[in-house]
Write a structure and sequence with these properties.
The chain is an alpha+beta fold. It has one domain. It is built from six helices and four strands. The longest helix has 15 residues, at 136-150. This is YkgJ family cysteine cluster protein.
Length: 151
């Protein structure tokens, strides 16, 4: 499966100053890390979590509703983090440091609007965590592995 491309509008984002990125990091999907290719997925999640700039968050632990997102600035290095707000680690004074195609799917698919009421296209924590559900075991195995080598 190819990653959705989305739209980028740097002019609108520059005027806004990245308010959405200052509020909460975008949500990544399994495809951002190589799904459905399990080995690619495992390898890419390992690299991302090991960098300390990505983290595993959740909606409901009992139901296995987890997802991956960039870390919140100042809290890099946490493999698991459940913050509800904070600035994305990849936001710089000049915008996102990630190339557009390497940003989380929810960031690539966000439709910027001049009135700062950008359209998230339905990429909620609940929706994205459902997409991760079939990869729950892999995500947990990799996250625990990264935690064990980090400490």
């Amino acid at each position: 499966m190819n990653k959705p491309v989305g739209v980028e509008n740097p002019e609108i984002c520059k005027v806004c100053g990245g308010k959405c990125c200052k509020t909460y990091p975008g949500l990544a999907t399994p495809e951002d890390f190589g799904a459905p290719d399990i080995e690619k997925l495992r390898e890419n999640i390992f690299k991302a979590l090991s960098s300390g700039r990505w983290t595993v968050d959740w909606v409901n632990q009992d139901e296995g509703l987890y997802f991956v997102r960039p870390a919140v600035k100042g809290f890099e290095g946490s493999v698991f983090d459940h913050r509800y707000s904070g600035e994305c680690t990849f936001l710089t004074p000049n915008g996102c440091e990630l190339a557009f195609e390497n940003r989380p799917e929810s960031c690539r698919m966000l439709v910027p609007k001049i009135d700062e009421r950008c359209d998230p296209q339905g990429y909620t924590r609940a929706v994205v965590s459902q997409r991760w559900k079939e990869y729950y075991e892999i995500l947990m195995d990799v996250a625990i592995e990264v935690e064990s080598v980090s400490f």
